[in-house]
Fold each of these.
Amino acid sequence: MKQAIYNIGVEDTMRIIGGKWKPIILCHLKHGIMRTGELRRAIPNITQKMLTQQLRELEDDGIINRKVYSQIPPKVEYSLTDYGESLNKILEDLCVWGEKDIERRKQKGENIILLNKEDVSADPLPYAD
Amino acid sequence: MKQAIYNIGVEDTMRIIGGKWKPIILCHLKHGIMRTGELRRAIPNITQKMLTQQLRELEDDGIINRKVYSQIPPKVEYSLTDYGESLNKILEDLCVWGEKDIERRKQKGENIILLNKEDVSADPLPYAD
DNA sequence: TACAGTAGGTACTAAAAAGTACCTGTAAAA
DNA sequence: TTTTACAGGTACTTTTTAGTACCTACTGTA
């Protein structure tokens, strides 16, 4: 049995939600159930390999559920577990802070683009203009 | 001028506070001003090189202040900028979630150790027994 | 005099993370 | 009949991140 030693709690949190793809995957899943292909399309640039790999790790850590339908072609749904939902507020805060930071940097003249704002993508307000 | 493109805000946040050492450094600095040596002692295992490197990046991103006293031997103090303070709640949440997660895993029989709990280390309650 | 403490820097190496390319197998659509 | 979509897997390579070792320069202490 291998032992894990942490100095402070944030190390464990980052082990679980850190990395290039996990926070992105989780920020999508906090809106609800998604199929593999939906996730792949929602996260441009992620490869099938990285997507599967990260999903497996999140599953192993008890953060997400993997529901496999025994049918052909295959259908697999991913969603946050109840425990994973306890990360929702943190994930939301991380998204919002980043959106504001990007806005701030833009104002400073940095050439930086944000494709999907959290709330905009969730609620496009089609008639607002 | 190089361009940065993000799909969702959390990518930018993680660019700034992610990695092995940055969240740890920030979780220490949110308690107040610290000198280089204090940080090095507070974060066992970090090397001088990584500490300096991460501090420079955080400084470049406007998260921390670096105050150099022109004296010998040198004295340098690090602290969160006002902007950096806007991360305090997130950092606190990340620490607390991790502490609870470690507790949860311990209960499940995992061999896992947390050396410094956020509140305990900040307020040792010397007469409480 | 030799060493510890102060706060770094730099070149090189090791390890971890991510990416590329190519594979499975079935069903439905072009 | 070939292609696409579905949800993967695996071997290998590249990139990124982190670590090691050794350097500066000055002061105070043993």
Note: The two ends of chain A are 60 Å apart (CA to CA).
Amino acid sequence: MSSAHRIGSLLTTEGHRLTTGRRAVVEAALASDDLFSVADVQRLVPRIGRATVFRTMRLLVDLDLVCRVRLEDGSLRYRLRVAPEHHHHLVCTGCGSVEDFSDCGVDAVSKTLAGRTKYEIQGHRLELYGLCPTCCVSSG
Amino acid sequence: MSSAHRIGSLLTTEGHRLTTGRRAVVEAALASDDLFSVADVQRLVPRIGRATVFRTMRLLVDLDLVCRVRLEDGSLRYRLRVAPEHHHHLVCTGCGSVEDFSDCGVDAVSKTLAGRTKYEIQGHRLELYGLCPTCCVSSG
DNA sequence: CCCCTCAGTGATACCTGGTATCAGTTTCAA
DNA sequence: TTGAAACTGATACCAGGTATCACTGAGGGG
Ligand SMILES: [Mn+2]
Ligand SMILES: [Mn+2]
Ligand SMILES: [Zn+2]
Ligand SMILES: [Zn+2]
């Protein structure tokens, strides 16, 4: 069973209709780079309306099938959610490739900070930026 | 010597002109909430052109007089830079108030991750979200 | 202190990325 | 097969930010 099929099944079991538009967007997401934008998807499915692409991306995020990655400049990228537990991203500023990591060590800091500030801490966002081995060499 | 004056001096010593527009924007920033948007500033100086407000904010950021804070939804806020060294923000999701903190403990994680992934890590962004003591009580 | 110059201004148009609307279409359960 | 309603997509719209460019005023040299 292909990823596309699995995602399709999940859509229907969650009570959503499996339309051609959604199928196309899912295929495009699967065929995209590690880190892709809505624009990337649109390019792959030019016959599907812009609004539908945005709506479908939101749906996939809501269903935890893809995750949003916010870049340094504030722009959004998407990525198939292969690591569904709490995790963060190490993003290559050269080529955009991404490494997931989960042992962020922020919880300890959160606790300390909660004590000091009396805030009730609800969560955090952490992203690391750097150059992947390939980009390291070619820029080095 | 007021903050406005100090900022004005810094502008001129850095070779920028101290125009009425810039003065007004600085005054507005000083009069604003802890965490303010460009729109907040615009509301306070409606006679100053939109472009000028944006340009002045960028100038203030470039001069390290204010820092940008990216909210969970990706939108930008500004804040007078009282803690100019490397630091992060603990943002109240209730009222928007902010605590700075600097001992984020991410460098250790960076080192570990650099070893494991062979990335050359350049930096990170960390933001914590929670409820400040006041909002804690009122939502409690 | 008064010019002159050029940094700065602001109206306007434009751009990107995303949402609201709504008449028309398609899905899918009955 | 059929109909309710979920979905679509053209379009208009919005927010936030930038490019342009004729005009202006800040402020240093004379
Ligand atoms: Mn991820
Ligand atoms: Mn700060
Ligand atoms: Zn790379
Ligand atoms: Zn609060």
Note: Chain A has two domains: 3-80, 88-139.
